[in-house]
Amino acid sequence: MQETAEWIAVDLSNGCLRVWIMGANGEPIAQAVTDKSAVIETHSGFETALLALVAPYLAQDHRVTCVICSGVAGWNVPYVATPCTPPQRVIAASPAFADPRIKLYIPPALKQMSPPDLMGGEATTIAGLLRSQPEFDGVLCMPGLHTKWVHISAGEIVSFQTSMTGALFDLLSQQSVLQQSVAGTAWDAQSFLTGVGDAMGRPQAIASQLFGIHAATSLLDMSGGAARARLSGLLIGLELAGTRPYWLGRHVAIIGVGDTALHYRTALAEQGVQGQLLEAPPLVLAGLCASYESTQNSAK
Amino acid sequence: MQETAEWIAVDLSNGCLRVWIMGANGEPIAQAVTDKSAVIETHSGFETALLALVAPYLAQDHRVTCVICSGVAGWNVPYVATPCTPPQRVIAASPAFADPRIKLYIPPALKQMSPPDLMGGEATTIAGLLRSQPEFDGVLCMPGLHTKWVHISAGEIVSFQTSMTGALFDLLSQQSVLQQSVAGTAWDAQSFLTGVGDAMGRPQAIASQLFGIHAATSLLDMSGGAARARLSGLLIGLELAGTRPYWLGRHVAIIGVGDTALHYRTALAEQGVQGQLLEAPPLVLAGLCASYESTQNSAK
What we know:
homodimer, Nucleotidyltransferase, domain 5, 9 helices
């Protein structure tokens, strides 16, 4: 007989939906992931996608708690102002889940008033990190569509800065004149480093350096791997130029999944910073566990 | 009875298809424009769109010359290397036009080897400018998806630089997290100037300044007009920071259509540069006329 879920942890970051089915002993009894990011951007799309993953673990006459690390478009999530500890106390998500077997909880989002900035699900990851390393003091680099640089000290999020690096890479590589240049999955490590250096040296030239990839492909037979790596290098180099106060002379941990985190580590290493690589999912799960405990404590 | 075309001038720049039906006396007898940019990106789409505009002016048993200022995807256009005069001698376009009543001619594209850069139809506009102002000495700013800055001296294109400013604006305003922030057509002039100044002052921060528009919309109730103007200001300011050697202390002419050219003039004026505004279509037509004459001369 199929075991039923004690509660369910839901990660909706990095363009995928990942769930852990949690057992009575506090350990996952199963996990599943779907990368259909397009369908989970709306509430009904999210609801369908979540049910497809977790339905086998639901009991018919029992409402199970789902703790989710970030909001879906249309949800009204309150903000907590930084500096602050990562918020662990969760709130019932609105709008409510249509299926009566599930009750959704979500942590508040974070806001920084000056300069204005916003953080969603990343705060749950930070809560997870501070659960296992409460003494962490330094800077987190969290690559993604909207990469976060976060200064952590004394258990608090002191300040943070968001760069649209991943979004720019996706838009330019999929829908601009560079689309043909960067097609494929090849990668040229030297072109990446040259791109990082070019953007850090002359960040004001980025809009023409980007078009230069198209020109170099046409005139100098630049390969797809070199073009793709140079595009990534230019954008990450631009971000490093703009976030220098965060990483210069600091302890930096890069929290990510896959190649992008490695590229950030490579780029930082060239600047003399040895970034510590941390896998994101275990930290997200740890943060979601902390949030789940808050629902239990408040119920007592 | 409908007059027939002596030849046809075709402008395929700025996301629209514009034609002038030229009479025997060298003057336009009609003109028409369509903005269906999506359908004219392919050869068959272009052919259909062009025929829809010019068919009434074609004779049944006569092949008319169409001179077009830039290529369509899939056409194999040769390059001329800068420095050079804008090429006026046109070549028969490949692939050929399916309708036997039309023969297409196109000028070569321009290439610059170091730094690598490419120019298409803008060279025809420059040819048109030099036809009416052969003594022009200075810099052209040609806003567009891929804005061109061009140094002109002694009748030659000395060097040029392309920035993907318009493409970045379109992608970010239509398909990024900023989409909601910048919706509408309102415009806040002060936000534009502040954006120009912020990007020129700290171009390395552009990727976080862009996300800051989203944050300011959410946290500070920034209006749509302020957000839209700030996005434009940040991107034009970034471009001005990267093209300073082109415009600093030079005579600058801005060739464009519509509000974008005015925004460039406003931004340059803040830097103490009084850019001269020139409407693009008359210059394109003058350049196409020069190219048409070359087909007549070579036929003699």
